[in-house]
Write a structure and sequence with these properties.
By secondary structure, the chain is an alpha/beta fold. The chain contains eight helices and eleven strands. A five-stranded parallel beta sheet has the order 2-1-3-4-5, sandwiched between helices. Strand 6 and strand 7 form a beta hairpin.
Length: about 230
């Protein structure tokens, strides 16, 4: 069986070495690079299961690396950055990251977040029925095995977390999910008060589904309760 491979991209060698040490203790295979260009090349030439990206890197920053990765791949991405404001975190999530960890960080917390991201990703892949759509509604088709989505015959490029949220809602039409429930189901960890992570992901998901221009809303907001799939 192929070892789970994690890309570590950080221009601070000491930090990259520290992350590698803790992840290898968990049994993961690590590939370390120190600039954005090397990160893109590593993804192109290796089967990467998860990427940990610093935002401020030489040649290409983490945002640009994420954009390029998302053109071809849907592996989970964790941003690791000294940019610690709420606006920085929201910007990272909007640009395609699945999680955001600030420096200085606890290595064991980062390992726990890596485990949670991989657990969710591998769980959806292993429980899906191959080649069969799980849902068809309003021009939307979801294929859980391939983790791909089509809207009126055109592919919709979603991040792993966006896909997981859509899959969760679409699997229970009309059922209202609170932000807390969505977070705990998709991220696999306890919800923390004040988090707007789910709201940010719902916003970008709606945009990708064309809800800013289409009259039919696939994701309905239930005021002061949560969200429901309106298919």
């Amino acid at each position: 069986m192929r070892a789970i491979t994690i890309l570590i991209a950080d221009d601070e060698a000491e930090i990259a070495d520290l992350i590698e040490l803790h992840l290898e203790r968990e049994g993961y295979r690590c590939i370390k690079v120190h600039d954005g260009q090397e990160a893109v090349l590593a993804v192109q030439s290796n089967a990467i299961d998860l990427a940990i990206l610093d935002i401020m890197m030489p040649k290409l920053d983490g945002y640009e690396v994420t954009r390029m990765i998302r053109e071809q791949h849907l592996m989970p991405i964790i941003f690791l950055s000294a940019k610690a404001s709420d606006l920085d975190k929201i910007a990272g999530l909007v640009r395609g990251a699945d999680d955001y960890v600030t420096k200085p960080f606890n290595p064991m917390e980062l390992v726990a977040r890596v485990n949670a991201q991989l657990r969710r990703s591998l769980q959806f892949n292993s429980t899906s029925q191959p080649g069969k759509p799980t849902l068809e509604a309003g021009g939307l088709i979801i294929y859980p095995e391939e983790r791909c989505v089509f809207l009126y015959g055109k592919p919709v490029e979603l991040t792993p977390k966006e896909f997981d949220i859509l899959h969760l809602l679409a699997s229970h039409p009309k059922k209202v999910f609170s932000s807390e429930h969505i977070f705990e189901q998709v991220w696999g960890e306890a919800y923390y008060e004040g988090s707007n992570t789910v709201m940010v992901h719902i916003r970008t998901l709606r945009k990708k589904l064309g809800e800013d221009v289409n009259k039919n809303k696939l994701i309905k907001t239930v005021w002061e309760v949560g969200y429901a799939f309106n298919g």
